[in-house]
Give the backbone structure.
Amino acid sequence: GQLVLDLNPGFKVPKRPFKRMEYREALVFLEEHDIRKEDGSLYKFGDDIPEAPERKMTDMIGEPILLCKFPKEMKAFYMQPCADDPIVTESVDLLLPNVGEIIGGSMRIHDEQELQAG
């Protein structure tokens, strides 16, 4: 507590619950706000969103974001696909304004046959 305030006197405790945003929604946000790749093209499904555009989006939104449901093809083989949309995973990154991604996680596949098929 106090150490955080000593190191960062302007620190404000984030409000809860944190905003939830799916990867697909992030792509829409980036397009609507003309945040593009270095080559000038738009981000499309399956593209990794690098730190700089991810931070720009988070800073513009101005609150913590739980960014979730990333494409299966860009995540580790052991991440659980979503039951309602198996091309995305039960995965999440926590993004903070003025910081960026601080942690990520996912549900893990627990079926041995499914893991071996991966």
